[in-house]
């Protein structure tokens, strides 16, 4: 059985490549004597699960080259390399480089492949090993490849994906030849450059962003008050701390209203288009749960479009309209079917990899 003895991430230029890579030490066991052409129907079964492997050129130098190599006979470490790369592509990754080399110990290989997100790269290698063992040693009742790929790779990639603004900054830096290093896999903290010239960004905040500006922008009540003081139209809002106050202020300003956490983010806890007292009471707990301070804002409801504007050096460089996930019923298909059809749109991807985000189903 194929086993992974060691797994590590090399984040910069290394002995294997000039790009960051995952390095696995893989023990093939008895598979050292069983290349792919000696395992009945192996290639066909693998390609049936991962048809895009036909795009891999491998050392042959043309489309379909890797599949040719498997039919002629190649070792399982080499297959693991290609499957791990393809797993990442399923999750929206773009990494294509890889190599497999002997360690000097019989049946043990160095499997090296590039990655976009390091923890997704490691997970891809481990899932690739599970899949290959499953195909070689027979079906396991509890191994569902589609579900495993969704849970262990695609959803992980979605959680770890850069936000749209960070992604644009990283792409611009790479386009200018500036070294980019993600410092923590679960945070969008990125280092640009090295040594005394380095700069760090966290989402849209940079090492030049003031703490005062961050505190103001993170407090919706304070932000709205400052905007109104400057004569910039903003919804009237009142900060409240309990449900009864929220009901009283909503009645005073007039329905419909919005409840939102004073200091939340990513739209968490925002409850819109509340039409009466019952709606305010039933949604108040959700808004307060998303507030770090425990306070909630009651605001007048305004309908319109939602835009995100990226400003660099006092110039607007990009504007994106943000459209909530939705489907339109047709009287025939279920909501689940409509979501599945919407997600088939090639413009939709995982996280921020494409112009539209794949619609996920939650509570």
TrEMBL record:
Domain ATP-grasp residues, every copy: 224-315
One Pfam family recorded for the sequence: ATP-grasp_5
EC numbers for this chain: 6.3.2.29, 6.3.2.30
A GO term, aspect molecular function: ATP binding
Keyword set, alphabetical order: ATP-binding, Ligase, Nucleotide-binding
Gene3D superfamilies: ATP-grasp fold, B domain
Protein name: Cyanophycin synthase(EC)
Source species: uncultured Thermomicrobiales bacterium
């Amino acid at each position: 059985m194929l086993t992974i003895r060691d797994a590590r991430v090399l984040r910069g230029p290394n002995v294997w490549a000039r790009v960051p890579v995952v390095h696995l030490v893989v023990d093939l066991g008895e598979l050292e004597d069983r290349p792919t052409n000696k395992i009945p129907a192996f290639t066909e079964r693998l390609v049936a699960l991962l048809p895009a492997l036909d795009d891999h050129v491998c050392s042959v130098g043309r489309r379909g080259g890797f599949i040719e190599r498997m039919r002629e006979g190649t070792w399982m470490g080499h297959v693991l390399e290609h499957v791990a790369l393809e797993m990442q592509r399923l999750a929206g990754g773009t990494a294509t480089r890889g190599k497999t080399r002997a360690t000097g110990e019989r049946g043990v290989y160095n499997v090296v492949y590039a990655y976009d997100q390091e923890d997704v790269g490691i997970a891809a290698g481990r899932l690739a090993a599970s899949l290959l063992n499953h195909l070689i040693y027979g079906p396991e009742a509890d191994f569902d490849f589609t579900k495993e790929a969704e849970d262990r790779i695609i959803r992980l990639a979605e959680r770890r994906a850069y936000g749209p603004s960070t992604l644009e900054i990283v792409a611009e830096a790479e386009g200018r030849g500036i070294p980019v290093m993600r410092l923590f896999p679960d945070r969008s903290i990125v280092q640009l450059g090295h040594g005394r010239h380095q700069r760090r960004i966290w989402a849209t905040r940079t090492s030049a962003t003031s703490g005062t500006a961050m505190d103001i922008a993170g407090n919706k009540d304070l932000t709205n008050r400052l905007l109104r003081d400057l004569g910039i139209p903003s919804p009237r809002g009142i900060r409240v701390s309990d449900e009864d106050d929220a009901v009283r202020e909503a009645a005073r300003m007039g329905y419909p209203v919005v409840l939102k956490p004073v200091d939340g983010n990513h739209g968490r806890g925002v409850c819109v288009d509340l039409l009466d007292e019952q709606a305010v009471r039933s949604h108040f707990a959700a808004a307060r749960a998303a507030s770090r301070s425990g306070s909630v804002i009651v605001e007048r409801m305004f309908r319109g479009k939602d835009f995100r504007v990226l400003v660099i050096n006092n110039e607007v460089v990009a504007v994106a309209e943000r459209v909530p996930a939705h489907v339109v019923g047709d009287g025939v298909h279920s909501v689940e079917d409509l979501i599945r059809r919407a997600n088939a749109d090639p413009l939709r991807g995982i996280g921020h990899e494409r112009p539209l985000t794949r619609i996920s189903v939650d509570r």
